[in-house]
Design brief:
- It contains nine helices and no strands.
- By secondary structure, the protein is mostly helical.
- It has a single domain, classed as Up-down Bundle (Heme Oxygenase, Chain A), CATH 1.20.910.10.
- Helix 6 packs antiparallel against helix 9.
- The radius of gyration is 16 Å and the shape is globular.
- It comes from Haloarcula hispanica.
- This is Rubrerythrin family protein.
Length: 203
């Protein structure tokens, strides 16, 4: 297996989950139904805060290159948090509980890939939301942030190719990625149900 194979496999396995996480209902869940710009920004800041805390804790990873990647990710997420003109809402996405429990470079890199796949989808929704709010500057900021997340994913993929030495390693990385995405989806699903919204698309 290669990292490209792993990412394809994770996308295939979590196709439905990622598709729904890439819908506007994600913002509805994040804001608990308050789809106002300041509330969306507070939710976005909370996601960046949680990501910073997670990756900062990983920056002492035993693999030097992975530690550097996680430190870079911690720095980027802190910069994005600080650039958002809103205080983070006091809420940590559930997937970060899964990420925090990952131990070992292989599992962390796999979890990082899972986080990146979710985060890119969410940033696409921020971009669309602020485009619809006639706020092209903020939309552009989130569009650029989404590209930064893809760049980080590419770096993680290169490291996975370097550190995975066996099928067990690849299986562990894939399982971590899937666990992160499925946890994000479960939270999304349960939050929407609590809000009285059907989480499934209506055809």
């Amino acid at each position: 297996m290669t990292a490209a194979d792993l990412i394809d496999a994770v996308r295939d396995d979590q196709q439905t989950e990622l598709s729904r996480l890439g819908s506007s209902k994600t913002l509805y869940a994040d804001t608990r139904g308050e789809m106002e710009p300041d509330v969306v920004l507070s939710a976005a800041a909370a996601r960046e805060q949680a990501a910073h805390d997670t990756f900062d804790a990983w920056s002492d990873d035993g693999h030097d290159d992975a530690a550097a990647l996680f430190a870079d990710a911690a720095g980027e997420t802190a910069e994005r948090r600080d650039s958002i003109d809103a205080d983070p809402v006091d809420r940590t996405p559930a997937m970060h509980g899964v990420l925090a429990d990952l131990d070992g470079t292989v599992e962390r890199l796999g979890g990082f890939v899972g986080w990146s796949l979710v985060d890119k989808k969410v940033k696409e929704q921020y971009t669309g939301f602020f485009t619809g709010q006639a706020d092209p500057q903020t939309a552009s900021t989130f569009r650029s942030a989404g590209s930064d997340v893809v760049d980080l994913r590419d770096e993680a993929a290169e490291l996975l190719d370097a550190v995975c030495e066996s099928d067990d390693d690849w299986d562990a990385a894939e399982a971590a990625a899937i666990d992160v995405i499925s946890t994000a989806y479960d939270e999304y699903f349960e939050t929407l149900e609590d809000l009285g919204v059907n989480p499934k698309p209506v055809c």
